[in-house]
Design goal:
The complex is a heterodimer. Chain A is mainly α. Chain A has two domains: 79 residues, NADH-ubiquinone/plastoquinone oxidoreductase chain 6, subunit NuoJ (Four Helix Bundle (Hemerythrin (Met), subunit A)); 46 residues. Helix content of chain A is 71%, strand content 0%. The longest helix of chain A has 25 residues. Chain A is globular. The mean pLDDT of chain A is 85. By secondary structure, chain B is mainly alpha-helical. Chain B has one domain: Orthogonal Bundle (Helix Hairpins), CATH 1.10.287.3510. The model of chain B has no long low-confidence stretch (mean pLDDT 88). The chains are: A mainly alpha, B mainly alpha. The interface between A and B is large, with 86 and 73 residues.
Amino acid sequence: MSFVFYLIAALTVAGGLAAILFKNTVHCALAVTVAFAGQALMFLALDAQFAGFAQILVYVGAVAILIVFAILLTRNSETPKDGVYSKNWFVGLVIAAGVFAVLGWAVLGSVRVLPGPGGAPTATPAVTVLDIGNALMGRYVLPLEIVALLLTAALIGAVIVAMHEKERAK
Amino acid sequence: MNPLAGYLLVAALLFSIGLAGALTRRNAILVLIGIELMLNAANLNLIAFWRYGPHPEALTGMMFAIFSIAVAAAEAAVGLGLVISIHRHAKTTDLDAMNRMKG
């Protein structure tokens, strides 16, 4: 494990923690953008350049903007007076801690069978964007079409759901 | 430490942070942010297993992660559209205040 990994991991986790701990909603949106960017750096560190830049384009570029727009459209930028956490926040915290304990126990318990520097290959996979394009147009063309259909449906659905209903307002 | 285990632990931590955010915050937008963090943690797992798996040239994990990013983007768009619609209807995004299904 290199110094770079610890740096990126600390940045990502700090962004995620700040996103759920900050009181101001706009600050939360900025913090989650930092977490998304840290995740993209992690993809780049894992030699997944295409996924890393897709992450930057989709999350840092689009989802963060969508979140900021939603915050401003719902006038949530000011901090509410009666606290930002729900009534039964303690139960949620216990559930999340329990999930982390189980996941961490599973990962740490299986360290010796995971591929790593010991025996299994860790050489940089020779994968270019050309290979990804060929795979998308060959073996994965059906999922690609389904995702295209899903994105079209989501676009139309989001517009219809958020559209102003003028007839009912009269 | 094993590099794959390190990435898996970071992903588990991010998932738990997202779950805690989704379960404890009042604001619907913050709950969506928590769900996005959980989806991101799953993507990190997929890419880490692709990178350290025996056949990275098969591109399976990479494709899974790319499609997952696309689906998560669609989910975010529809979810935030729903939040805006609910805010217009109920004049709030406080989830504790939205405790009835009647319109």
